[in-house]
Amino acid sequence: MKTLLRPAVSLFVVLTAITGIVYPLAVTGLAKIAFPEAADGSLIVRDGKAVGSRLIGQNFTDPGYFWGRPSATGPMPSREGSKP
After folding, report:
1. Is the distance from CB of 57 to CB of 68 less than 8 angstroms?
2. Could you write out the three-class secondary structure of the chain?
3. What is the pLDDT of residues 20-78, one digit of tens each?
């Protein structure tokens, strides 16, 4: 039993470190180098405080897109064609 348990636990720890720590840090680092603004979430900053993201609540008008968030797309979003 010990001969099976030790390699299994060791492999679990190694793969957890690689897939849970090393890989996410590497991908985040590369994204910050290649796309610095997008990697940080495209934040909107007012008075030194992050108040939102430019990527959330966009007003899509083309019928090929899903509906944007009604609370953030404009004063009165259109619901043409939606069923009650």
Report:
1. yes
2. CHHHHHHHHHHHHHHHHHHHHHHHHHHHHHHHHHCHHHHCCCEEEECCEEEEECCCCCCCCCCCCCCCCHHHHCCCCCCCCCCC
3. 999 999 999 999 999 987 888 888 888 988 888 877 766 667 777 766 555 555 555 55
- Enter the tokens of residue 46: 């007012």
Query: Which amino acid appears at position 69 of this protein?
Result: R
pTM: 0.52
Using the 8-state DSSP alphabet, how is residue 1 labeled? Answer: -
Beta bridge partners of 60: none
The tokens of 42 are what?
Answer: 């495209």
Distance CA 12, CA 33 (A): 31
Buried b / exposed e across 47-73, counting CB within 10 Å, b at 16+? eeeeeeeeeeeeeeeeeeeeebeeeeb
